[in-house]
Structure formats: structure tokens, C-alpha cells
Description:
The complex is a heterodimer.
Chain A: H1 7-23, H2 28-52, E1 57-58, E2 61-62, H3 63-88, H4 91-97, H5 100-105, H6 110-116, H7 124-140, H8 145-171, H9 173-176, H10 182-190, H11 202-211, H12 214-225, H13 231-256
Antiparallel strand pairs in A: 1-2
Helix pairs in contact in A: 2-3, 3-7, 3-8, 3-12, 8-12, 8-13
Chain B: H1 2-22, H2 24-33, H3 36-50, H4 57-73, H5 78-88, H6 91-96, H7 101-130, H8 140-165, H9 174-188, H10 200-207, H11 211-214, H12 216-223, H13 232-260
Helix pairs in contact in B: 1-7, 2-7, 3-4, 4-12, 5-8, 8-12, 8-13
Amino acid sequence: MSRRRPPLLRLVGLFWSTSVAAEMEYRTDFALAVLNSGFGLLTTLFGLSLVFGDGPSFAGWTWHQAMAVVGVFTILEGFTRAVLEPNLGQIVRHVQQGTLDFVLLKPVSAQLWLSTRGLSPWGFPDVALGVGLTVWAALRAGAGAADLALALVPLAAAVVTLYSLWFVLATTSIWFVKIYNVTQVLRTLVEAGRYPVSVYPFGHRMFFTFVVPVAFLTTVPAETLVGRGSWAWIAASVGLAAALALAARAFFRFALRFYTSASS
Amino acid sequence: MIARALRQARALLSVRYAEMLEYRAELVLWMLAGSMPLILMGVWMKVAATRPLGLEPVDFARYFLVLFLVRQATVVWVIWEFQEQVVQGTLSQRLLQPIDPVWNEVAKHVAERFARLPFVVGLVVLFFALYPDALWVPRAGALASALALTVAAFALRFCIQYTLSMMAFWTERAASIQSVWFHIYVLLSGMLAPLTMYPEGVRAVAELTPFPYLVYVPVAAALDHPAFPVDVPRAFAVMGAWAFGFVVLNRVLWRRGLRQYSGMGA
């Protein structure tokens, strides 16, 4: 059966099942991960309720529409915890210890290996909670099945965009070596995506649309969900994701030319 | 004995300071990773501009700028280092030194503060250049009590996190406990908004915990604004009591933990 699957998918399946099996050694962590997701969500919703005050809406968003943004943010947070952190967060370690050599020697794309080798189940509670909240909030905000289906497009684009930003930043460790925390800066900036981008003043909004495209990560998918999206924004988010994915790949190849391995 | 302690402190601090200077780029990145208050500043300035809160947008700009500074001055990361030392067994070497291992960690944190300072000052200057309306000169008394409260907040936060670190003797992932703690800290410390804007019930609960003293109280003391009243002597007393409790708990756990510790060489 497994022989009929394409070999790359089989490889990723093996990577992930072994990673999850290894993480299962730390089962009490799972309880903590669930607590962590719960408190994280509670904190965000509480912050949002303070911003809304007693009013029915703020900056053009109703409470349920804004909750859809929180839901999308929580999904992306789970993706970060499950996939980005355990993989791209390790690139700096491979560079520092010289083990990137072994990765480059493997008969598989180095980018694929570096991006899919690990999978942390501790991101799953966030993904589950995020999907639940997003669907619930979208339905309460009056979304139909067509909106939910269409929102998958900007959501997929958001995942690719976030991955590409992480990958580019993690790749810079080939030059700078000791920058464990460069992705931490990105994580902080992405936190701005807990709220719809229109709650920010003009300067912030420009920054979070054109410099660090947080608006495309959570606001555009949520707008599509609640049926107030526009084709222009959806097209822009897909275009941005494609451009960033290609740029990330080119940047990685370029960076590798500067990699002086541990043994040479 | 005091002379010896001073000598040790000087040696530890100068070594750690030199070490921190080596990683200046990393320090700048850590500083930027703490820029959440500057993001929330934008939200609240907009809220203040759209509905009457009794506070002007500029008040929020100051609140979150001071909050950013207090957070920069009270960053603590001891749990990750301690967990690593226990899991890898490097704590054993530290135990052989004729000084409690905690002082090494304290020295790292204090030295890092000084290494980080120039970058933080640079960012504040940039902020006021971009937004001159927010510039104000705090009263000397307010500034002095805010500084003292910030130092106390750092000490208290260190005591709490070092106590949580002791869990590393029993679980390999003590840092997961820290991340749950951090969410509650964000919720109750006044980081999301000034504590005075919280609903009465949440605020009453928050005041029973050490969290507001770690962020809100030093910020309020610096702002010296009638909307943010703060009882400075009482704050010191409460922080002292919390710190005392955590130090006692810490020493109990430390003794038990060392008996449990089975790292290489132990």
C-alpha cells in the first residue's frame, strides 16, 4: 500500500510519525500544551474585549468577525508550534554545530529535509482550538458554506507566506551563526495579527501590510470568511505567497554558497 | 566577608558583561522581540481617539512606552538555562564551585541589562523623534520610585522564575510550565491595557497575585498620573512578602531537588 504513495510523501510521513513517537515520551507536556493554548486564547479574547469596550463593533469589525481573526491567528500559532519551530528553529543549531553538512549530503532536497524533519504534537491543541473558534465565529457572523470554502484559499496562502518568512530569517543564520532569536522577533510582530489590521493607526497599518505582511496572515482570510473579502485582496495574498515562496527558495540556494561547513 | 562578596560580584559581573557584549546582535533582536507593547500602543491610541476613556492618546503612548522599558529592564530567562544545566548535567560543575550557582545566573541577568541599555536608549530617542508630543519630563520623585520598583520587580520575577526552574529536577520540560505562567502574566500584569481599564472583578483577582507588581505598578509610578494611582510603600511591602515566600519555597525545593538530581558526575 505504502509503495504506491509518492516517495516524498512517504518520507515526510516517516519523519512525522517518528517525531510524534519521540515527543510522546513527554506526555505530561500534552496537558501543559492544552493549558497553554487555553490560556493563550483566553488572554487574546480578554484583550480584544477590552478594546471593544461596551460597543457592538470597533474599527468596522463586529465582535464575532473579530473573533474569526483570533481563530485564524490561533491556527497559524499552532502551525508555527507544530511545524515551523521544530524545523526552521533548528537550522541555526545545524549551522552552529556543523551538522548542516549531513543534511546537504542526503539524497533529498535540503529545504524539504530542513522544513519537514520534525513535527511537534504540542501545536495540535492550538490548531484544533483555532479551527473550532474560526468556524463557530464565522457562522455566528453569518458566513455560509461557500465563504468557508473560499477562505481556504487565503488561509493556505497565509500558511505559505508565514513559512517563507520564517525560512528566509532562519536561513540568515548561515551568515550570522548565533541568532537563535531572529525568528522570535518575527513571532512578536506576527502577534499583531491577533487583531484585525484596521484596529491599528495608519503607521502601524502600513507597516503590517507592506513591511511585515501580517494583514495577509489573519485579516484577509478572516475577511473572506465572514463574506466581506474582495477578489483583489485574495489575489494579492496568493501572489504574495507565491512570490515569497520562490524568493525563499532562491535565497536559500544563494546562502548555501556562503556556507563554510564545519569540516572545510 | 563583605569584601569577599564584593570581589566575587565584581569578577562575575565583569566576566558576564564581556560575554554579553560578544552577542550584541542577539541583544538587539531580544529587544525587538519585546516590542509587543509598542504594537498594543497603536491599538489603544486608536481606541482613545474613537471613544472617551478619560485618557488621551498621548497618555497611552506614554503608558506603553514606559511599559516597554519596564519589560526590557525585567526580562528573565533563568528557567531555560537552568533546565539545560540539569538535563545536560553541566550543573555538576557549578555545584563544585565555592559559590551558590544562582549567583552566576543573577550576574548574567544584571550584566545583560547594562549591555542592552545603549540599544534601548537608542530606541527611546528614535521614538520621541518620531512622536515628539509624547515627550514629558517625569518628576524626580516619581522617577526614583519607579526605578526602585522596577529593580524590585526584576528581583521578584527572578525569584518566581528560579523557583519554577526547580521543577527541572523532576521533569525535563520545566520551561513548558513557564509558558503557561507567561500567559497569566500577560493577562493580569497590565500588559494588555492599564489595569484601571479592566473589569472590577478581574482587577480584584489580579491584585491578589504578584503579577500587577511586575509591570503595572512600576509603570504607574513612573507616569505619576491621577488616572493611575499607586501606593509605593505598600507596593514594596507586598513585593517583599511575595519575594520572601518564593525564596523560602525555592530553598526547600532546591534541597529536595539536589537529592533527586542524577546528572553526570552527581
